[in-house]
Amino acid sequence: MKFKAFFTDDGISLLDKRFLPAMDKVGRVCHVFLTPTHAMLLHNLLGATAAGPDGGGPQCVAQFAKDLLFREYNLSSRNGNQIAFSVEVALLHRALRSVLAVHAQPPASGDAAGAPAIQVRLVNKLPAGSRSATPFLTFETKGARAAVVQDVPISRPLSRSDVERLQAALDAAKDLPQTLVQVPDLPQLQSLVDRLKNAGDLLTVAVTQYGDLHLQVSTSLVNVGSEFRKLRVIGDRANAPVGDQNLTATTRMDMAVERGEALSVQVNMKHLVKSLHCHLAKPDYTFYVVFQYFIPGTRLADKSISFYCRLPVLDPGSS
């Protein structure tokens, strides 16, 4: 089992500035899944995903084409050239920032410009006082005045059966609702949810085929919510009934559900708050809750990056 590669400048910047901060807010530990074509950061796809009364928390998938993150990408294993392991996101980010600091050192007067690329590889090392080797993800680079090697402890690579389970969970996580609506302003939505979370622990989320997003908290003491209307729709869509314009938001949504033109589910408020921290990854567009990126300088979707979150549904409602 071998993995060795060099980061591209764009790739390491994406991880440092956007995706690792976002993943760290969602959960302490993630899986790194390396395949011949892609590198992925996966949160909560195995283990406790379906455990407990709250469903185990949100799932997050950040997938990158290997050429976006790496060059000289060498990967081999007996599991179909796939390697997966778990790692603490904060430790991974700390090591990355440490090697970036050395890598960015300006050259001394008279030295050639340009620091060596940052290398990452899987290694087994014998820690002091231990009799058995431990796997690490090792980062190495040289700066103008120093060199650095950062070892990040990881789990033992997943077995073939666990890699197959991870791939099956990943395939299942790709199933999307038939209708998605574009959130106009993700930080604005996060601010709204931060206010709603003080009213209750459960949130009803409803989406119509004509672009309405409805968020509501209902308890024995309070009934409060908010509505976004006429949002951009992807997937199944319909024309909004003219006669519904003067009705309340709740009545309109109930009628849309009855007509089969809306989906309504109940989710844990804490899970939604966690998933909305993914705005730190700075998506160009957000479709509830799928994130879309553009090729820099264009309005064309960048298919080398995909990022999405799934929340466990506590009450399937009309879904």
TrEMBL record:
It is found in: Nucleus. The keyword Cell inner membrane does not apply. It comes from the Eukaryota. Signal peptide: none annotated. Gene3D superfamilies: 3.70.10.10. The keyword Transcription regulation does not apply. Keywords: Nucleus. Belongs to the HUS1 family. This is Checkpoint protein. It comes from Urochloa decumbens.
